[in-house]
Amino acid sequence: MRFYDVPRAACLSLAVAMLAAAPATAKTISVSATTPDANEKLQEALILAEPGDVVQLGAGTWKLTDGLSLDVANVTLRGAGAGLDGSILDFSGQQGAGEGLLVTSDDVFLTDFAVLNTKGDGIKSKGADRIVYHQVRVEWTAGPKETNGAYGIYPVESTDVLIDSVFVRGASDAGIYVGQSKNIIVRDSTAIENVAGIEIENSYDADVHDNIATKNTGGILVFDLPSLPMQGGHNVRVFDNDVRDNSTPNFAPKGNIVASVPAGTGVLVMANRNVEIFDNLFDQNGTSNISIVGYRYAYTDAKYQPLPRAIVVRDNQHGRAGFAPAFPGGAEMAKAMGGSIPPILWDGTGDAVVNEDVGVMSLNLPDLKMPQSAAKPSRVDLKGTAPAALPGVTLPAAMEAKVQ
After folding, report:
1. Does some domain include residue 8?
2. Which of 55, 88, 107 is the last residue of a domain?
3. Would you indicate the residue range of the signal peptide (predicted)?
4. Among 237, 130, 125, 247, which Cα is nearest to 187's?
């Protein structure tokens, strides 16, 4: 994991600027979990908070029956600070089917609390720019189930998103999902026993690094889908992650796009462009460590581009993979190749540069009308000149300062 040092002079100037910008009346609103009407009191605090305020959750387990919402800008929601177990928002008795917490305002900082067993998504933010999720846990405690909420951490339609040191378990779609957003960092987080551990969808400029994705159906997904307001996902870097043993059977509800992800998938790139996958550790992913595919479903969106383009794979460490490929015909392919297929799987469409000391299996699927490397599945190395390296994502200094 990495540490991010900010020069002392910069910290001082930033602190002065933040103090100057904060309202003179900024205050801390404390709410106790033991109050008989804790659900109402907490929602009231989120409604009455003003820019600059901190809503401080008391220690303990909150038994909540209704979802919460926040639409005030520049508010901090902070737990009691005892790791991720100091303040636990337990929605096991939730009456509606919505998310546990919905944020629709800018410059919000969520830190040091847990959200359990929501009927819908755990924490969703929509149109919330410069949002920070820090040291937050979202979990469905009964294990992987189709009836679990779809998303754990779920920012969408936002610019400047930081997800730092979160833990998500049990989402029936994606544990950490960022969709239709720009300028994103997901780091130092753990996704376990979700269908998709981490997913970047229809988004621009994202760094996904120093995370652990394990025991999901698929570890890390980079998708671009049709018929969404924001399309053409690109410039995504996936690096320095530990992606291993993603073997959980797919438990997504039928009809969801992730319901088609084969168990045992490490990283899956579909119909995206300018994606770099490097310096990751892969091991014990039964289908593949890395899969690169086109979008193979019916669509009516004339502007949609279904092909993966400019995908670069380099300098990863590959452990055991391909020993239990969970796609049609995969088991027969593995048997024919001595017990496993190569750790990198490519459907044969689009373009990719793979500079690794491991094999690549091309499925040579012809239906997306792209040139094929061979007439039947084979081991190939896709060497070539890689495009220029993508620049790293930089977030506003005030966002980084919140997690120091």
Report:
1. no
2. 107
3. 1-26
4. 237
Token pair listed for 298: 């019916």
Give the chain's domain count. Answer: 2
pLDDT of residue 54: 98
**What is d(CA 230, CA 297) in angstroms, rounded to the nearest whole number?**
19
Q: Indicate the pTM of the whole model.
A: 0.90
Note whether 195 and 333 are same-domain residues: yes
| DSSP codes of every residue in 367-399 | TT----S-SS-EEE----PPPPPPPPP---HHH
Write out the two tokens for 63.
């038994």
Answer yes or no: do 103 and 145 share one domain: no
pLDDT tens-digit map of 161-196: 999 999 999 999 999 999 999 999 999 999 999 999
Query: Which amino acid type is present at position 171?
Result: A
Gap between the Cα atoms of 336 and 322, Å rounded: 12
Amino acid letter at 135?
Q
Looking at residues 379-399, what average pLDDT do you find?
Answer: 79
Between strands 167-169 and 182-187, the pairing is: unpaired
Residue 271 inside a domain? The answer is yes
154 and 99 in a common domain:
no
Measured between its terminal Cα atoms, the distance across the chain in Å is: 14
Label residues 167-184 b or e (16+ Cβ within 10 Å = b). bbbbbbbbbbbbbbbbbb
Poorest-pLDDT segment among 44-48, 180-184, 331-335: 331-335
- Report strand pairing: 101-103 vs 352-355: unpaired
> Which helix (H) or strand (E) covers residue 362, if one does?
strand 360-362
Name the nearest CA neighbour of 173 among 152, 156, 143.
152
The three-state (H, E, C) secondary structure of 68-92, written as one string? EEECCCCCEEECCCCCCCCEEEECC
The closest alpha carbon to 380, from 338, 350, 352, belongs to 352
Q: In a 3-state reduction of DSSP, which class is residue 179?
A: strand
Lowest mean pLDDT among 17-26, 286-295, 355-364: 17-26
The domain containing residue 246 runs over which residues?
A: 140-393
**Residue 363 · residue 345 · CB < 8 Å:** yes
Is 70 exceeded by the pLDDT of residue 1? no
Q: Which of 374, 380, 376 is nearest to 361 (CA)?
A: 380
Q: What is the pLDDT of residues 99-155, one digit of tens each?
A: 999 999 999 999 999 999 999 999 999 999 999 999 999 999 999 999 999 999 999
> Do residues 76 and 146 both lie within one domain?
no
Distances (CA, A) of 98 to 148, 326, 334: 12, 33, 43
